[in-house]
Amino acid sequence: MAVDNALSSPLGPPACEKDAKALQFIEEMTRNTDSVQEDVLAKILTQNAEVEYLKRFDLDGATDRETFKSKIPMIRYEDLQPEIQRIANGDRSSILSTHPISEFLTSSGTSAGERKLMPTIKQELDRRQLLYSLLMPVMNLYVPGLDKGKGLYFLFVKSETRTPGGLFARPVLTSYYKSDHFKTRPYDPYNVYTSPNEAILCADSFQSMYTQMLCGLLEREQVLRVGAVFASGLLRAIRFLQLHWLGTF
């Protein structure tokens, strides 16, 4: 597909117009990172000027970086834990955000042995999807023909809980896979998976792996690439195949 020169990227020739726009966005966001970050901070402070937490520090409407650094202290998770617990217990007032908290994202728990709760809003899913959409345009610069086959990607959900106030608490990828952003995503030839949504969303990790592996083997002639979000996931898939292929497939 011919791409307009106006959309060309310094990173290289894009594969299509959609890729060109994504690469242009990357270029714009990374060319002037200082001003971009200052603008993002100003938008966050303006939008959340009336939240309970920020009002404690008397910003008086200031949105510049220097005022923010001089008045807002460096904190740890434990410093915000009382506010987070209030939200988890059902307090819907503007404590940390003017937008309603839609759910909690959980940490892996590897640093302190206990999962931390990170409040998030529905609008964050849009930003997350935008970040995910930038992967293939960059890969297409270096590996041509990625739209000609399917991807055998091992994607999994993990367990989730509800807080006393009724909000979900779950890992970030589980949140994304269970959202409409993923389940009703538009067709994209660069992101066609062998695994159906039902296999990815299966809560039983063994059954999910079995089904995804089976679908990949059944469509092996179309598999162009193999992967997982984390390298450990791919290693787990290889080990699963070693342990079970003789008696199962």
TrEMBL record:
Signal peptide: none annotated. One of its GO terms (cellular component) is cytoplasm. InterPro entries: GH3 (IPR004993). GO terms for molecular function: acid-amino acid ligase activity. It comes from the Eukaryota. This is GH3 auxin-responsive promoter.
